[in-house]
Amino acid sequence: MTKEEYKTSSYKAAIISGSHDEGKLIEISSIEAAKITSKEILVKSVAYAVNPTDWKHIVYGLGAKGSVVGCDVSGVVEEVGEEVVGFKKGDIVSGFVHGNVQTRTGAFSEYVILNPITVIKYDASKFDTDKVLTTGIHPSDLLTTFEGAASVTLGLVTVAISFSHSLKVDIEKSKNSNDYILIWGGATATGVLAIQFAKLIYGLKVITTSSPKNFEYLKSLGADETFDYNDKEVVSKIKSFGKGSIKYGLDTIAFPETFQSLYDATETTNQVHLDSLLGLTGESIKTDASRKVTYGTTLAYTALGKDVTLGPKTTKSTPELQADYKLFWETVLPKYIDQLKSNNLKVLPKGLESANEALELLRQNKVSGEKVAFRY
Ligand SMILES: NC(=O)c1ccc[n+]([C@@H]2O[C@H](COP(=O)([O-])OP(=O)(O)OC[C@H]3O[C@@H](n4cnc5c(N)ncnc54)[C@H](OP(=O)(O)O)[C@@H]3O)[C@@H](O)[C@H]2O)c1
């Protein structure tokens, strides 16, 4: 599609249908092609991945009927705004967009408008553009396929904010070698990436919780010690294992009870930094006033440079957050992107039409240790 054509034409997208019935959250529709600004890029989509935030936006009414669904996409750059540096037409990329809230752009669409600050460029010489993952489960692998690349960007943005800003982990690996991070929910899509960040990029030792069936997988990604979150003694076992050296805690589940567990398991550490992915702080749990704890509340959307209001809560995108994130995203992550692995992938067969099934799998909690992906 040329620049002139897309300005006047429409393309195919999955939009919020207005129904909350099973298997009917989205409908495939034709949307008007919007023009990119000088600061944006336009990507021709190849593959997508679904995230819990997608069905939550729809079912909890955070996005209006007609909004383009989806946050994670991979594809090929079609057009680059005049002020954008570092990207050109034909680049292989994956991108994270605030989908489910706007008619102008969203991931599950033929073309997607992206802010480059949440886009990853891949080395074409290492990327297998011809490989199409067949329907079914594929084991965790390097980010060399469109399905794999589509599955990581929201997660990578999230852990980038968490480590660089919310937890403020020192980027000098040698300073972290005696410290543990406790990642509650290591088998979540976010946890799988957080384990790799902690080990590979920051040189931390990693304790994580998951179901026992995921222990070996998480160890293969870099976890040093794994604990079953269903074990009634899990908190005391982690506490005695960590012996005062669990300096950081990230709760990827972020229920009040999991955040309480994270808080309690780090009790013996003198100064601890905790982060929750659903906005929880000390105010949400029982705390001990004598402990020194700092709280982060990572929200991936804030990487896009604007305050984010979801329901009653507004999360600030402060200049400090933007600077910490940008430095990490532009100068640290590119050095490691070739070494990072995706989650295990569950690939659906019906192209864009798969979006309803993908959303339903997550809404009904039918996915364990996998990321659901599909092609355009
Ligand atoms: N703030 C943000 O920007 C942000 C970004 C991404 C995600 N999130 C939120 O974070 C949450 C996780 O999202 P996700 O996509 O990473 O997760 P996901 O991949 O959908 O998580 C599924 C996994 O959760 C694990 N799990 C469930 N209950 C658990 C518990 N009590 N303790 C430990 N592990 C448990 C299960 O592990 P086992 O199979 O081992 O049992 C399961 O495999 C969602 O609520 C999502 O909305 C927020």
Q: Strands, helices and their partners?
A:
Elements: H1 3-8, E1 10-16, E2 26-32, E3 41-49, H2 52-59, E4 72-80, E5 92-96, E6 111-114, E7 119-121, E8 136-138, H3 146-150, H4 153-166, E9 180-184, H5 189-201, E10 205-210, H6 215-221, E11 225-228, H7 234-242, E12 246-251, H8 256-265, E13 271-276, E14 292-296, E15 308-310, E16 313-315, H9 319-336, E17 344-347, H10 355-363, E18 370-375
Helix pairs in contact: 2-10, 4-5, 4-9, 7-8
Which cofactors or ions or other ligands sit in this model?
NADP nicotinamide-adenine-dinucleotide phosphate
Which blocks of ≥5 consecutive residues have pLDDT under 50? Answer: none
Q: Which fold name corresponds to the CATH topology of the largest domain?
A: Quinone Oxidoreductase, Chain A, domain 1
Q: So, CATH architecture of the largest domain?
A: Alpha-Beta Complex
Number of strands: 18
Count the domains: 2
Report the span from N to C terminus.
16 Å
CATH superfamily of the largest domain: Medium-chain alcohol dehydrogenases, catalytic domain
Main CATH class of the largest domain: Alpha Beta
Shape: globular
Helix-and-strand structural type: alpha/beta
